Amino acid sequence: MTLVLSRRGLFLSTAALAALQFLPRSASAQSGGRITVAADSEPAQLNPAIAASNGVFYISSKVIEPLAEASYDEAGLRPLLATGWEGAEDGLSITFKLREGVTWHDGTPFTSADVAFSALQVWKPLQNIGRTLFANLTAVETPDAHTAVFRFSAPTPLQLIAKALPVVSSVLPKHIYDGSEIAENPANRALIGTGPFVWGDYKPGEYYLLKRNPAYWQPDLPLAEELVFRVLPDRAAAAGSLEAGEVQLAAFSSVPLVELDRIGKVPGLTVITKGYEALTYQLVVEINHRNAHLANLKVRQAIAHAIDRQFVLDTIFLGYAAKATGPVPANDPTFYTPDVTTYAFDPEKAKALLDEAGFPADASGKRFALRLLPAPYFNETRQFGDYLRQALAAVGIDATIVANDSAAHQKAVYTDHDFDLAVAPPVFRADPAISTTNLVRSGIPAGVNFSNQGGYVNPELDSLIDTALTTLDPAARVALYHRFQQLVTADLPLINVVDWSFTSVASDKLGNIANNPRWAVSNWADLTLGT
Amino acid sequence: MAGLLKRPEALAGGAVLLALALIALAAPLLSPGDPLAIAGKPLILPLTDAAHPLGTDRLGRDLLAGLIHGARTSMTVGLLVAVVALSAGMIVGTVAGLAGGWTEAVLMRLVEAFQIVPGFLLALALVSVAGPSLAGVVLAIALGAWTGPARLARSRVLALRESEFVAAARVLGLHPAEIAFRQIMPLALPPVLSLTAIIVAGAILTEAALSFLGLGNPNVVTWGGMIAEGRNQLRSAAWLSIIPGLALVITVVSTYLVGEALTDSLTERRPR
């Protein structure tokens, strides 16, 4: 299936192409003009402080800013809403100095109260990543309007928090959210932030429109007058729209890999692999351990042995990926260890393991049936779903693919647990504690996307994750995360297949692109459209 | 039926349909195993490898196997839709025509209500809600296809119900249901049956369109699904879309040709 249509948006999407032409044209003549980029999904809600995921960031990061953004320079971080941060010796507090003269889009000044509110009311209790990262956060003191002191009940490594800032620290306006049901607040759809662009409009199935924030705190920025995220769920359409000049950018590999060779030669378009360094994606088989078959370690090992990683790498990713050995990608300079249990492609061994587990093949060669839910976000996750079904059939597991749109997929897997196997593309974000340990830590309530919703419980792994979270010594942390990788690969709460990054295809007219390691999900204040 | 044989285009169409039906029936023999299985190297060009005469797709799935098993899906859906739509249409049309009065008014307004909604949108909506099972898809497409038969059946019944044999049956004291379904319906059937081919062809196209939009069953090969799959590589591997596309065109054209001839012979219309 190439075309993933949001089922609810289906009727609208046909009208989308026509309707887009009726957007007001007024801004196109001004400096910077209107920049139109392809968007391939429409997240159910857009609040980045609650859902720290790249699908949400892609749009919301232009409106709502974090305390700091990733950067190519030595420090690895560029201050945004915070101008500086300092950790206490004992690891029990971190002091943030906040930027002065920043206002929210509705004119209210940005203060430390907003940061304290976001941290305690949103990041810690509601956010998929903040839940574990800020588990020990007890208080945020605000000695003055531009200082916030985070108090922790257990030692918390500054290095970890700093690395996580671009992802976890999207600040929400307290005056809008305070006293309301945060997850239901209308501002989750019509965003209010401090960023270079203000919320314009959203037409489901058609486009998101963001407009220049004239009162942005960085002088003379942003350069673009308007940003239009044109919803193009169809990958083939993204390539065509680029060639026709209707969109100037397709990020996150939304142009199919097979088309890159050809489109790179089209005059005026460039294929760019930079700008995704801090966004390594992991192709993962999520496992529902509530399923009696899958609760058996031998079955999980058999599935790991049934997957031909070389085939996945060569055929699905056309070489734009690397084989994964475990939950930390090999390109991570700090935490990766190759000293883990590995599972070579070996269907015979897989069959033997399934026999041992007590699931012999019947007359037709089948052992048991499973439901397989490939995440619809990427071509590659869907194709891997098709591949996995065949790979499992080869060892006698009869998998039925259940195809859903994004919203239905997330509900089925992360809220209703209505799956046996799922294909997921979680992100590795520079430190395992940011979003990787979540995938296996137990005790995460239902409804938290991109977390352990497979019902996997391993007290040893849980306590290791908790210990690492409060270990200040960098070398000791690395050792703990080596152990983490060994435990995960031995017990297989999930199966890592390959790690990959993205490509963008951009018009040569765009200036200042791919200039930080999370560029696609950064604020694009300096993005410009030349002539 | 004799008229059918005199028309070479109908004969050709019929021959193609017969061949397709045989292929669909014999699919498990012609191409054993799962047609979605990865059978060889990815993207083998057609006519270059004896093991995969029509080549392979992006993952190395055999295109010929997909085509053969896809015929099965298309044919099954086409025929089942025709059966469901014709039966529903005949029953509603006959009842409406005979009963008259309020019953007729209500039934025919219902028919019109379905008629004004584009059949494809109706199918889309239903499949989105009910999920992509075979029964769901058949029902969804039939929902947009039963109105034609219903209107035709009613008009025939209206003409027939004033006939003398119906009056005679009434005098004999036959139950109205017996008159409707044993006396009148068989006579009203031929013109309605002539719609079969058009319904089948429409259903095959609609099913392909649903699969193309990703609303088909991902565990079953369909021509529409194959075209959609190939569309990503339309510029670099066009045959992936063209081959199942041609199969679809040939099937639908053949069905229409047979349908034309059927209409002429069943309604005793002079060939144009």
Distance between the termini of chain B: 17 Å
Provide the CATH architecture of the largest domain in chain A.
Roll
Q: Any idea of the CATH topology of chain B?
A: MetI-like fold
Residue ranges of chain A: pLDDT <50 for 5 or more in a row? Answer: 1-31
CATH level-four homologous superfamily name of chain B: MetI-like
Q: List the total number of helices of chain A.
A: 16
> Which residue ranges of chain B are poorly predicted, with pLDDT under 50 across at least 5 consecutive positions?
none
> Within the largest sheet of chain A, what's the order of strands?
8-9-10-1-11-20-12
Q: Average the pLDDT over all residues of chain B and give the rounded result.
A: 88
Q: Can you give the helix content of chain B as a percent range?
A: over 70%
Cα-based radius of gyration of chain A, to the nearest Å: 23 Å
Look at the helices and sheets of chain B and give the structural class. Answer: mainly alpha
Backbone shape of chain B:
elongated
Question: Judging from the principal axes of the Cα atoms, what is the shape of chain A?
Answer: globular
Please name the CATH topology of the largest domain in chain A. Answer: Dipeptide-binding Protein, domain 3
Protein name (chain A): ABC transporter substrate-binding protein
Domain Solute-binding protein family (chain A): 77-424
Main location (chain A): periplasm
Pfam family, one (chain A): SBP_bac_5
